[in-house]
Please model this.
Amino acid sequence: MENNEQNLNAGTEGSSNSVQEEEFALIRAVQAGDRDAFGPLVNRYQRKIYLLAYGMTGNHADADDLAQEVFLKAYGALGRFKFKSQFYTWLYRIAVNTIITRRKQWRRHRHVELNPEWDEHGGSPYLPNSLKASTPGGELGRRERQKGLQEQLDAALAGLSEKHRAVVVMYDIEGMSHAEIAKVLGCSKGTARSRLHYAHRYLRQKLKGVKEG
Amino acid sequence: MSAGECRRVQSRFEAYLAGELTPESGRKLEKHLASCPLCREELEAERLLRRALSARAEQVPGSEYFAAFFPRLRGRLSGPVARPVPSLGRIPRPAWGMGLAAAAVLALLVLVDFSGSSSALAPPASGPPALSAEGSEIAEADFDYVLQPGEVGAGTYVLASAASGGGGLNYW
Model:
């Protein structure tokens, strides 16, 4: 896990500013019509957005789908980026909202699969086989899924509200600080801290008695 | 050991494990732990939780997957990116323009009234939107990413201006 007190972009203020300038230049290029300028922005954050989606869903096929959707939305909205915030904060907010909205839709219409053929083959065709096997959506994944800590964690995370789960994923999996989480969620640092504390207490209760390994 | 003290100690676990407590607070917490089996058990559970969550960060696809991520995405960037909208202050607004807009709205309302039901103003069909392979649905529906009530980030809502043409709430 990364250091929660380090900025997502860089460890120092100076390098953070240069990263921001570089990102702003890329955004201006995209706004001027250069689609390929979006590539470096995607490359910089694709792993983190994927991880956020995977942490929220516990499912690689959904994470793949959602990560692509987040960047599509970001691209579509980039023309309205006002350069008043950091790109990653803006992107993360789109990501959190997209993931939460999609999950609500999936819960309401669980029988409607966005990519039904993925289930038949055990996951997204773009995912490596090792991850397809662990895709809960597929029969192969279900058979091979081992009882244990990670499964208990999945069940416990599922009991949290979307907003509490988002805080846990951003802090514990992504390594973001309370301040960064607060910026993304548009809440105070205290609220982010309090949500994290509540979520941890809940998860601890759910994981009591579970053995590691 | 009072329940209140245990609650206070447990509320500091995250800060304690992150090394954010002052040395004095850390010593107090450890003193409490030494005499409270319940809090020791909670701290162990917190450590287990953190290890389990950290392990998630390693469960990502390899570099091949990410190398192909943007090339896949690029093929779906079909629509032009939303261009910045100039502020109202920079748009010349002749007085007759406002009258023209009002007349257009009035005409639309009259049309709707006469036709009984207007498909243009009908609410969108319910159910999840179908994602096309090209992502065109996303490009149209979310071209100008609009926050819905209840979405996170509500604290930084700004009302969509008349210039943006949207009736919703926009980012920043």
Notes: The longest helix of chain A spans residues 87-108. Chain A touches chain B through 79 residues (CB under 8 Å). Chain A is about 70% helix and 0% strand.
